[in-house]
Automatic annotation (TrEMBL):
Stretches assigned to the Ammonium transporter AmtB-like domain: 39-432
Compartment(s) of residence: Cell membrane; Membrane
Protein name (record): Ammonium transporter
Protein source organism: Sphingobacterium detergens
Family annotation (PROSITE patterns): AMMONIUM_TRANSP (PS01219)
Lineage: Bacteria, Pseudomonadati, Bacteroidota, Sphingobacteriia, Sphingobacteriales
Cited SUPFAM superfamilies: Ammonium transporter
Alphabetical UniProt keywords: Ammonia transport, Membrane, Transmembrane, Transmembrane helix, Transport
Membrane disposition: Multi-pass membrane protein
C-alpha cells in the first residue's frame, strides 16, 4: 500500500490541474514589456537550469564509482519535484502577498493563478510575471540539490525526496520571501542579496551541516573520486550557468547585468588560483579538483555581491572566500563530521563570506539600490545589518533543517542499511551501475 501512495498523490495533483486551470487573464493598462529584457531572462532561466545537471556532474565525479548514478540522480530529481511544488504553491509562498514578513500567502499564485496575460512583478515591470516565476524556480531547484553532497553515499532516495519537499516549503521559500519580497523582513531591514548568497548558499550550507551531523559518518570514509573529468565538466557547466544566476538577477539586459557578469567571472578566477596556491604551500600538487572547488567557491561568494560591488573588490571577495573556505575544509577534516563533499565549508562558508563582504564593499555608484555604502567606505549600517542577518539566517536554516531531518526520519528512515551502503547506492537504490 505504501508504494502506491506517491502515485496517488501525483494523480491528485493532476486533478488539481483540471479543477484550477488558471486561464483567467490578468491585464495592466500600460504594461509594456521590453523584448531585450524578456529575451535575456529567458536565456538566464535556461542558464540557471543547466547548473543543476552541472552540479550533478560536479558531485558525481567526486564520489566513489558505486555511487555516481545515485548522486547525480539526487540533483536531477530536484528539477522534477521542485518544479511541481513551485507551480502548485511554492511561487506563492515565496512571492505571494506578504504574511508577517516571513512567508507569502499560498493563495496568491496557487496553481500559477494570475500569471496569464501582461501582468508583471512589481520590481521588474519589463518582463512577464510568468517569466519571473520560472526564473526564480531555477533557484529553488538547485538549492536542495546543493545539500546532497553532504550526505552522499548513505541516504535512502525515497526519504531524500520527502526531505527536499519539506526543505523547500519550510526553509527555502520563507527565506526567499524574507529576502526578496519587498515586504520581507530581511528586505525591509536592508539586507542586500543580489542573487542568492543568503537564500541559496547559506540555507543549503547550513542544511548540509545539519544533515552531515544527523546522518553521522559513512562506514568507510575513504575518498576515491570516480571521475575527475566529470568534476571538470560540472565546474564548466556551473561557471557557464552562473552568468544566468548572477547577471540574470539584474532583471534585464542592462548595465547592472553586464557588471554582475564581470564580477562573477573575476571572483571565480581569483578563487581558483588562490585554492591552487594554498594547496601548493601545503605540499600538494596543483590539482584539477582543487582548481574546480576553488572556482565554485568564488562563484558562491560573489553571488550576494555580484551587482553591488566593483570588479576589483570582486577579486578581493574571491581571494578571501578561497582562503577561508580552504581553511574550513582542512579544519572539518580533523573532526568526526562527515560532510562528504564539503558542502558547508564551500557553499555555507562561501555564502557567509560573500554576505559579510557585501556589507563591506557594496557601493551606490555600482548600483543605485545600495542606500548605505559598505564598511570599506566608512559607513557601518549595512555591515551591521548583514551581520545580524547572518546569525539569524544561520540559526533558522540549521535548526530548521535538523527538525525537518528528524521529521523525515520518523516518516521514512533516512539512512540506508549497512549492506546497501557497502553495495553502493547505484545498485541498492536504483538497480543501475556504471
Amino acid at each position: 500500500m505504501k508504494k502506491i501512495i506517491p502515485l496517488l498523490v501525483l494523480v491528485l495533483l493532476g486533478v488539481l490541474g483540471l479543477v484550477f486551470p488558471s486561464i483567467d487573464l490578468s491585464a495592466l493598462d500600460k504594461a509594456e514589456f521590453d523584448t531585450g529584457d524578456t529575451a535575456w531572462l529567458l536565456t538566464s532561466s535556461a542558464l540557471v537550469l543547466i547548473m543543476t545537471p552541472g552540479l550533478a556532474f560536479f558531485y558525481g565525479g567526486m564520489v566513489s564509482k558505486k555511487n555516481v548514478i545515485s548522486t547525480m540522480m539526487q540533483s536531477f530529481i530536484c528539477m522534477c519535484l521542485m518544479t511541481i511544488l513551485w507551480v502548485i504553491v511554492g511561487f506563492s509562498l515565496a512571492f505571494g502577498d506578504d504574511i508577517g514578513g516571513i512567508i507569502g500567502d499560498p493563495r496568491t499564485f496557487f496553481m500559477m493563478k494570475g500569471t496569464l496575460g501582461n501582468i508583471a512583478w512589481g520590481a521588474l515591470p519589463t518582463i512577464p510575471l510568468v517569466l519571473f516565476a520560472m526564473f526564480q524556480l531555477k533557484f529553488a531547484i538547485i538549492t536542495p540539490a546543493l545539500i546532497t553532497g553532504a550526505f552522499a553515499e548513505r541516504i535512502r532516495f525515497n526519504s531524500y525526496m520527502l526531505f527536499i519537499i519539506l526543505f523547500g516549503i519550510f526553509i527555502y521559500m520563507p527565506l526567499a520571501h524574507a529576502t526578496w519580497h519587498p515586504e520581507g523582513i530581511l528586505a525591509k531591514l536592508g539586507v542586500l542579496d543580489f542573487a542568492g548568497g543568503t537564500v541559496v548558499h547559506m540555507s543549503a550550507g547550513w542544511a548540509a551541516l545539519a544533515a552531515a551531523i544527523y546522518l553521522k559518518g559513512r562506514k568507510s570514509q575513504t575518498h576515491n573520486p570516480a571521475r575527475i573529468s566529470y568534476v571538470i565538466l560540472g565546474t564548466a557547466l556551473l561557471w557557464f550557468g552562473w552568468f544566468g544566476f548572477n547577471a540574470g538577477s539584474a532583471g534585464g539586459a542592462n548595465t547592472i547585468a553586464a557588471y554582475a557578469f564581470a564580477t562573477t567571472t573575476t571572483a571565480s578566477a581569483m578563487a581558483a588560483m588562490a585554492w591552487i596556491f594554498v594547496d601548493i604551500i601545503r605540499g600538494k600538487k596543483p590539482s584539477a579538483m582543487g582548481a574546480c572547488i576553488g572556482a565554485v567557491v568564488g562563484l558562491v561568494a560573489i553571488t550576494p555581491a555580484a551587482g553591488f560591488v566593483s570588479i576589483p573588490h570582486a577579486m578581493v571577495i574571491g581571494l578571501v572566500a578561497a582562503l577561508i573556505s580552504n581553511l574550513v575544509v582542512y579544519l572539518r577534516s580533523k573532526t568526526s563530521i562527515d560532510d562528504t563533499l564539503d558542502v558547508f565549508p564551500c557553499h555555507g562558508v562561501g555564502g557567509m563570506v560573500g554576505m559579510v563582504l557585501t556589507g563591506v564593499f557594496a557601493h551606490h555608484n555600482v548600483n543605485p539600490v545600495v542606500v548605505d555604502n559598505g564598511l570599506f567606505f566608512g559607513e557601518t549600517k549595512l555591515f551591521f545589518v548583514h551581520t545580524i542577518a547572518l546569525f539569524a539566517v544561520s540559526f533558522f536554516a540549521f535548526v530548521g533543517s535538523l527538525v525537518l531531518l528528524k521529521v523525515t526520519d520518523l516518516i521514512s528512515p533516512l539512512r540506508v542499511e549497512e549492506t546497501d551502503e557497502e553495495l553502493g547506492l547505484d545498485v541498492s537504490q536504483h538497480a543501475e551501475a556504471l
